[in-house]
Every structure is written in C-alpha cells, then in structure tokens.
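Bumping with the actual sequence this time:
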Amino acid sequence: MAAVVIGSKSGIFRLKDFTWQCLTELESDVLIEVEEFSFLLHKFPLINASPVLAKIISKFSVDEDRDCAFVLDEIPGGAHSFELIAKFCYGEKIELTSSNVVPLLCTAYNLHMNENYLKGNLISQTETFLSNEILSNWKESIGALISCEPVLRYAQELDIVSRCLDSLASKVTYGKSSNPQYEISWNGIVCTKDTKKLSGSGSEWWHDDICSLSLYLFKRFMEVLNAKGHDPLDISNAVIYYASNHHSRVDPNSTGDWSVDERILLEEIVELLPKQQGATSTKVLLSMLSASIMLNANETCIETLEKRVGTQLDEATVEDLLVLNSGGGDKSVRNVDCVKRLIKHFIEENSHVNEITCDSTNEEGFTEAGSLQFGKIGTVAKLVDEYLAKIAKDANLKLQQFLSLASAIPMSARPSSDDLYHAISAYLEYHPQLSDGEKEQICQLIDVQRLSRDLCRDVAQNENLPIRVIVKALFCEMLDLKKSLADHGDGNDTGTEVENTEEYGTDSTEGKILSETKGAFSRLRFWKRGGWIRLTSSKPESPKETEETENAGGAKVMCRSWMNMKTLSVEKFKALLAPTKHTSSPERDEIGVSEADIKTAVSREARILCSHVENNLRPKIAKLQELGFSMEDISAIIACNPYIFRTNIAPKIDFLMEVLGSVNNISLLCKIPGNRLLLRSLEKVLMPNLSFLQEQCGFSPRQLIQLNKENRLICSKPHVLKIAVERADKLGIARSSPNFINALLTVSYQNQCIIDAKLDNLTSLGFSQEEIALMVSKGPMLLRVPEKLVGSKMEYLIKEAGCDKIDVVKYPALLAYSLEKRLIPRNIVRKLLISKGLVGENIKFPNFIQLSEENFVKKFVLQYEHAIPGLHRAYVDASTGKIGGVESFKSILS
C-alpha cells in the first residue's frame, strides 16, 4: 500500500472525549467546532497556512477579552480531514494514503492552502502524492476513487474523479492482462463467451476490484471505457459481474413488491450494457428481462431488453423463454405477450426474410445468403413451436394467446409442421373445454402436407382433432400409400372417379389431393359439408391386391382402416345399427335411427365406419337399451357423441347410473355435443373427479350435468379439477352454497391474473373489500364481465338509472346484465312510465331489471301499450340490438 509521511513533529495533539487539544506551553486562543468534535488550537499556525482560516479568525477575533470560537461547516471529509489539516499546520507527522489523500486534497483546496500563500503548502504535497504514487497504481487508484464518494461534489469540481477513472481505464485497455480464474455469471447463468468474441477482447482480472465502486462511479467508469473503444464483450461481462454481486437474487416466492433501489439498479445495469449485437448473450438478456418484469421496471428498460433479445432470438432456447412470466409470485403464468413482442422485434430486424419463400422441393434455388437467413428464421419458428408445446399444458393459456403466438412466425418459414402439431395436440388435450369452432380455428394452423408420415398417421388417430383435419391427414396417407405401391410395382391407376369434388374447388387442398389419389381405393363414401363425397372404382381389387396393399410400406394401419370403410356404405351402416324393436316414428325408417343423426355422427367421427359391427356397435347399442334408453335417445346420443364406440362404455354407464341416479340424467349428459366424458378413463378420471365433486363439494346430479355442459371440467385430470376448486374457494363462497358451481365455472374460464385484475377494478370503482366479497358471494358470474364494461355500466347506473353503490352491492347482477340490450331499454321504459304518471317515482330501477323478459314485457310494456303507442315495438327493437332501436325509444320519450 502506497503511503508517504509529511511533517516532522509528533505528540503535539491529544484527543480527550471529543476534543482535540494542542499540547504546547501556550494556551489555546481559538476554538473550532467541526461536526461533533472540538479543536483547541492557536491562531498563528492556522493563519500561516490558510488564507480562508485567517479571514474567519479575523472575523471572530473582534473582542480581545474573549477567545475566538466558531463553527466550520461544509468541510470536505469532515472532522477527520480537519484533524489532518490542523496537524499539518503545526508540522506534526501525517501519513498520506489512497484512502485519505482525496478528502485531504479537497479540504486543502477548500481552505486555499496553495503555493502562492505558503511554499510547500498542503495542496502541492497531496497533488504530488496523488499523481506519482496513487494514479500510477491500479489498486491505489481504486482506493482513491472509492474515497471520492464522501466528497464527491468537491472531487468532481477538482477533476479528481475523472483523473482516477481515466487512469483506471487506461490500465484496463492498454495494461497487461491475465486470464481470469472464475466465470462471469448472472443469476447462475454463465455469461463468458467462447465464441463470437468481438475483436480486442480483454481479460476480466479487474472485475472484482470495480465491484467495490458505487453505481454512479461504476457507470462513469463504463462510459470512460466505451469512450476509449474498449472491447464491448469485456464491458458486458464487467457489467453483468457487477450486477451479480449487487443484485439480490429474485425470490420466486415474492409478491413482486420490490424496493426502489433494486429496480433502479437493474434499470441502470440494462442501460450500461453495450449496444453491439452479440456482446451480451441472449440467455442473460432474457434473465434480465424476466427480473425487470418482476421488479416492475420502467417501460424503457423492458422495451430495451425486448428489442435486444429480439435481434438475437435465434440464439435462445426454450428454457430461456420459459423464465419469462407475468410477474408476481406465480411463476407458472407465462408471459406470452412478451414472447410475442420478442418475435415481432425479430421479424422487424429480419424483415427481408419475409421475401424468402419456402420451397422444400427446390432448395438449390436459394442463394447462400437467402439460405442462411431462412435458416435463421426457421430456427426461431422451431423455437416458438417448441415453446408453445411447453406452455400448452397451462390451463391459464387463452386460445387467442396461443393463436397469436403461433401466427407470429410466417407459416412459410416452417419447413415442417411437426413441432406446431405437437403444440396444438397438447393444447387440445389440456383444454377440453374448447368448442368445435375453436378447435377448427386452432387446427387451421396445421399444414397437413408438411407433416412427417408418422405424424400424419398420428393425426388420423387423434380423437381431439376436428374431422376436417383427420380427413386431410387420411388423404395424405392415401397419397403416400399410392406412391409406396408404385415403388413396389403395385401402383396401377384403376381409373377412379371423384364425384362432387367441385365442392372443394380444383384449387383447394382437398380437391388437389382427391384428384391425385384416383385409383387408390374403391367405393369410399363419407359425409362432408352437407353433401356426400364418393370415390368409386370401375375395377374392384382382388384379395391378392388387398393383401399386398396392406403390407405395402408404412401405410399398413391406414390401409386396413380404409379397406374397412370402402365397403361400408351409409345404408349398410344404418342396417347394422338396427335395434331389436322398431319405432313407429314416421321420420325414421324401420331400423329406428334417422338418416340425419347418422350423417351427423359420421361428420363428427368418420372412423365410426371402421367399427366392428358384432364386437362393438351392436353390444353398445344393446347395453343402452338394457338400461332403458329409448331409441330416440340412443339416436340422439350417437349423433352428438359417436366417440362412444371407441371405448368400453358398459362399466362407465354403470358407474354414471350410481352417481346420477337415472337414465334421464345420463341421457342429458351424453347428449351434450362433443362431450367426451365416456372416453375418459374410469379409474383415473371419472371416478376420482365425480367422487370429489360429490363428496367434497356436495354437487347434485343436476349440478354435475350443468358443470360438464358448460365447462367439461369433469373430463380434466383430477389435479386440474382440484386446482380449479381451490381457486373457487378463494372467492370466499362456501362449497355448500348453490353459487359455488358458478364460482367454479368462473375461475375455470379465466386465469388468476384476470380475476385479480377484475377484483382490483371493483376496488378502483370505490367498493370496499367487504362489499366486493358480498357481491361475489351473491353473483360470482360478475367476475366474467370485462373491466371496461363494469366501469361503463357503473357509470350508467349511477348517472342515468338513479342507482347508488348500495344498490349495486345488494344486486350485483346489475353489472352482469347487457348495457345495450337490458339496462338502457328498461331504464327508458321506466322513465317513460314515470313521465306519463303510469307508475310511481319511488319505484327502483333494480325492480325493473331483475324481472324475467316475459314478465317484464307483460307487466310494464304490454300493459301500457294503449297509453304509449309504439312502446312494445320500440322496446323489442332496442332489447334485441336492432339498429335505431334506442333512437326510436328516445323519440317516444320526447
């Protein structure tokens, strides 16, 4: 450690309590107070060294009978620095070190102790020590820079901070280096790169020392390094190393209520990272982005990180993206919107990639640059699809979020749809509540022609997919089979004709595939889009050809299925389903199953035509008849849920009979379109779920049917159901309450973040926690209403309908009714009747709202039609949302 001693005397000063005394024969004649210390000194040594002290002493020495006494404020370095000043004035030995030279120099400048006033004064001696001994040494410069903190304002004015920083930066940039013995990491993520290092990369021998600097001085140091053109990779590693030593690890159990200091630190660290692409790894940037979201950092910080991650998103992995969540304590809530923004930034950075088209049959058509760029976006496409497959199991993931994320990458950038199919299949499996229309919507993303053969076969057997996708996959399998047969010498064209292909159009995917598969199979007939499509053959296949076909290539399984289907017409299918007793209904033929129901069943489940008659179809129909199901019920069940022929329904029906108690209840359950309850495992799903709902939640058979009809939670895995029930418990509604099922349905439709946001919105509207709890207990369906609509309804109820907050608390259903179709029309009716004197002014708005539509029209509209002509028509137009309906009301009112 560098040090120098100036002065020659010793033992002059003594500290007693908080008072420094000068041990000389002369009695002290001046008392100076600095902070909590007192200094009993003599005027002459002080006046001789400092013109500032001379002036102050002269000012306070007017009365010769009294000792001179004054307080010194704003002394740089405080009492300790003034102690050294006093000793210097008396010639006592003082030791200059890196820790005291800066405060002492600032104090000397403050007291004007320069050469012009006294030769060999303190400024010249400390300046010489600082320049020669401190700034020439790395460790001493660090110590001097740290000592600038207490006197930062003075040190900056005297340019001492800049001199220290410049000295340190020069040593880092141009000095000798040695390899580090540690790895640079952020939150456990190794940041030091072995590849893609920028030119001039330095070593990290200095990182430990700069971690002792304050954030402000560290920022100044990084700015000086940048100005000197230091290696951005080295600067990035230094910033990350500094952050990892100062940033507390993100607590996964935290609620997200972070201190301001932590947020500021992270925001500053992000700003310090070099802007050059590749200087900071994508993994580290994503980790910082996750921390920024949980720390509620400012928008600029988050946006900067998102843009930087987006530019190098092709370097990320699925595990990197999974660290992103929506903030707060629940790390399972994935931040899909953030990932979507990352993809957007990537696409913008590589906008020219959109001009590159994917043509897997002519890869040589790409230029070298084009191939590289397409490979880059293809990497990101695969990353997004794998990420979707990971988060698809999240029950809180909305369909629109999934669709928007999957669509963020151009479909042409995907050389294969395999990964996207895996993601969609997982989403459908873990979200059984999706409607058929929603399933169709999500499956439009699948390009069947870009699926591998194995996956194409899997699509055809996937019970969660819509019939349209399955048919496409089957056609692709037929085409592959035709090619396989041709390779084996059996692919002769038999002249198959395709009837009704105009339904698809010659340019459509289905039409092209149908045209290309002429001669593949004979007499295939199935129902699609309201018309029958038939593939007929003029030449039947021989048994030998059938056997060879079944063993050709990898299409054995699909071939066998289609060979069964090709000889099974709808007429034969109807005959096979003939019950033992005939019905007398004129709308049904002698077998008792309507053709409309059969067509509906086949359109929902084409594979029903492959079912074995004696071993599958007849026993299940007979089982339903034995239990007392009518043929009309059986026909309706087959139309709504033809999937029942895929499973052994006998034990499941027996169990449902025990739970639901009657054939009528089972019939109601099975008639729910698309209900796959009977496909679920009896031991793993049905028994645990239904037992739990009955025993733990007290659900009646009617409530079980309602739950399965509206949400299909019963079909979920047991742990998913239990989580939903626990979330419903948090709403404060007892399980024995009739409203508990509505609470369960409410939480199953929305993730917890959305529910919390809606509860916060009610708080912002002025409701107390007790009032909110009461409202939710009365009407949990209130939490299904979007926040914006709640606000507009609240405003209307108070300003236009004459309600107050107490009315809303008492009747929370007011916020659940439609504003345009119920609240406004009925309020206009109320105002009309009051203005005409037909009802009293004291009648309250809730009384109008809660009546059923039939009772309201009968009691308040039709009854007064004679007094207010046109009232009924105007009300009907307004309540049904007809354009101009409200205006016609207002014209009556005027």
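The tokens above came from a reply further down the thread. The mean pLDDT is 76.
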